[in-house]
Write the structure tokens for this entry.
Amino acid sequence: MTARNGADALLQLRGVSRRYGDRQALHPIDHDLAAGRCTALFGHNGSGKSTLLRIACGRDAPTGGRALFAGRTVAEDDPEVRARVAVVGDSVACYPDLTVREHLELVTVAHAVDDAPAWIDQVLADRRLADHADALPNALSSGQLQSLLLAAALVRPRDLLVLDEPEQRLDPGARARLAALLVAEKEDGVAVLLATHQAELAEEVADHMIALEDGRVIEQGTPAEVLRKLGVRSLRRGVRRRIRARRRRRPAIRPSGTSRRTTAPSRRCAGCATNAGRTSGSAAATVPSSRTAWCSPSSATAAATPSASCGR
């Protein structure tokens, strides 16, 4: 099944498929995703959405076909891919003894973010976490934990944003803010790939929708076309009003002087606080080294494994 936007696509999937033992989790699919565009994956649990997302961001390798990011094979251990692809997974995984702010400081140090304190403050405000900046994860509600996962992706440079059901655990107001955020990401030139169960979110944000069932593409096209063929009704009109109201009140997500990084930062350990010296100017936000053993023999594994706490 093919859906292509042109040779200049940032993400290119060429016949990608995935088999786990005797089970074919994903049948071959072709798709192109360009900068400033959004593709939504739609389907029941077990339909292949998360498998396709894992392949797209390099967390899993296809057993057939190729996944390319900026013309190179997607691999999780590729520094350029890690520097330019931000991921919000479907599970909450935080460091229990790091505060909300310290989680975000860790991300900014790992990605050598310019003007990190200002960026962190804006992201905390944008995700309604400013009053919980000094709270530990176990003091947060499930919706606030989901907002922390989103904040960890927003506080770092990105050209591709991959999200697995980001609307889960969010109340209606937070879902409207999420939609406004993703529209703003597109306007800023970020490519967005998300899996969702919410038809309204897909209609408001996505330019293209792929409906999956048992690992196969059953429909694709604009969200309105696909939902009509599937017989799915949405409440888009009311959601659109809330999203537009949120966007009018929503401040810019990026402080001045900050831009997406297009080359990977040089670093020994992606989470080591000693990398603060590589962050320019006053952006050297230091995470207390006693919190985590980033420079232990297992640090390479910890740094290479995407987790909700590090935004990638």
Summary: Strands lie at 11-20, 23-33, 38-42, 64-69, 72-73, 85-88, 160-164, 191-196, 208-213, 216-221. The mean pLDDT is 79.
